[in-house]
Amino acid sequence: xxxxxxxxxxxxxxxxxxxxxxxxxxxxxxxxxxxxxxxxxxxxxxxxxxxxxxxxxxxxxxxxxxxxxxxxxxxxxxxxxxxxxxxxxxxxxxxxxxxxxxxxxxxxxxxxxxxxxxxxxxxxxxxxxxxxxxxxxxxxxxxxxxxxxxxxxxxxxxxxxxxxxxxxxxxxxxxxxxxxxxxxxxxxxxxxxxxxxxxxxxxxxxxxxxxxxxxxxxxxxxxxxxxxxxxxxxxxxxxxxxxxxxxxxxxxxxxxxxxxxxxxxxxxxxxxxxxxxxxxxxxxxxxxxxxxxxxxxxxxxxxxxxxxxxxxxxxxxxxx
Length: 320
Hints:
Blueprint: H1 18-29, H2 32-39, H3 43-57, E1 62-65, E2 68-71, H4 73-93, E3 106-112, H5 114-128, E4 135-141, H6 147-153, E5 158-161, E6 170-184, H7 197-202, E7 204-208, H8 218-225, E8 231-236, H9 239-247, E9 252-256, H10 257-262, E10 268-271, E11 278-286, H11 293-307
Parallel strand pairs: 3-4, 3-5, 7-8, 7-9
Antiparallel strand pairs: 1-2, 5-11, 6-9, 6-10, 6-11
Helix pairs in contact: 1-2, 1-3, 1-4, 2-3, 5-11
């Protein structure tokens, strides 16, 4: 008679290993219908498989929250294991993975701030959309305290950050070194002529405070080093909110140059009249996806975009 070592023990000989593939699809899609499309089966087949998966794991796997589904903590904990098993199985059972991006059907989940998504992820995707029309991007709001855990747990595939990862399981490449510029509404008095440090400091400014409510940032630290201060009147939580604000006012806003490039026409851009702070833009992923062709392909495309001398602008630029 077989003994169980715990309430969550699953004996290998009794396990339906096809359910690992179902678990991976559910974790990636968090939708029965989309998981079915991903695996090329009917939603009914996924529902039946989910029932068997729940019995095997003794866990609901997904639970309904309003009109949406949420993964249980156990499903999130198993996500990286399921993903790794599926990648290994694909390599084991095929002579070579499909190298044609036009045939890929995958979803890449990317953590990033509004700056990272607007200035890096979406334009890079636009460059490559013709190559991989079946590749989808799920943009996920970045939590400064949890982003590494999300990559480790498999809740996200990539993160675009301004810092290196601390965990040894995470890989990264530096996309570029960014600097700040100052933007203002088109027609602003400072959009023409020489903008010297004194005029800049006397003007009224907006500041992006990602933690919320701050009135001192990287530019202020740079000014303080030379004994200067500026007049920050408004604090906003996102760069895009700051851009919308300066378009409607005489406020100045300092922001990363790549984002200013994308919104030229909507805002006027000038070099900072003081030494500009700089930071590295870093793309981060988990080591388990090193061998994934769609992941490697995306890493190459966003890196190529980062080194382009004049990156393409967002399609919404120049709109009234």
